[in-house]
Amino acid sequence: MELRRDVFQAIADPTRRAIITLVALHAMTPGALAEKFDSSRQTISRHIQILTECELLEQEQNGREIYYHLNPIKIKELADFVEPFRKLWDDRFNKLEAIMKQHKPKK
Amino acid sequence: MELRTKVHAEDGKQELKITREFDLPLELLFKAYIEPEIVEQWMGTKVLKLESKKHGSYQFETTDPKGNKHGFNGTIHEFVSNQKITRTFEMENANFGVQLEFLEFEELTEETSKLSMHVVYRSVEIRDQILQLPFVQGINMAHNRLQEILKSKPQRH
Predict the structure, then answer these.
(1) Relative to the CA of A69, which of A55, A98, B59, B151 has its CA 20 to 30 Å away?
(2) What span, in angstroms and rounded, lies between the C-alpha atoms of B142 and B117?
């Protein structure tokens, strides 16, 4: 449960999704990734850290460089995840609840 | 923050269950499903037709940010006020076909209620595709964002 929430939070951020999409094409070094964004290197590196912590990204040492690539098992798991679907319904139901709490019956 | 909506989708089955408890009296929850103006608000759709009765039917239409219209429709098979609605649901211009929905409304206390949706799809594959739609849309949004980022980034080489 804890893990699911973390993974979902990880992909809830547009920059992190953009990182996932980039790394999905080929393994990249943190430097090469940072160059693709306007954000600071530190910001990107923090995003990479979050993605690595929830195992969406994996590190691979290649000589002196560290490359990041997608963890396909995790992505498959994520695609199987019902979370975005659940979130969609949860948002909808929250809206319903908020509207009905304001609702004054017509007499 | 814990989501209050539960989705139960067993592997290899062509159905799923959605449950949610509301801080609303049962009558108000049920009303949100039958009053067209209210449905429009929380579903974010236009209600072209909504006949809340046995053998009735409904037709919704949403407009996406690009201005394309998407239709949804279905037929109501069972309608018991404050208890249940059994209906079909179909996305027009999609390949998913029709799905069967059993909606059950329950009173928990005077101020709280529960909705249980049992949805049956034509096949396991279709169910899985529909389950993954919001995920895929999320990734597509990432693609669009990526395009914007790459476009706005001056080339260094």
Answers:
(1) B151
(2) 30
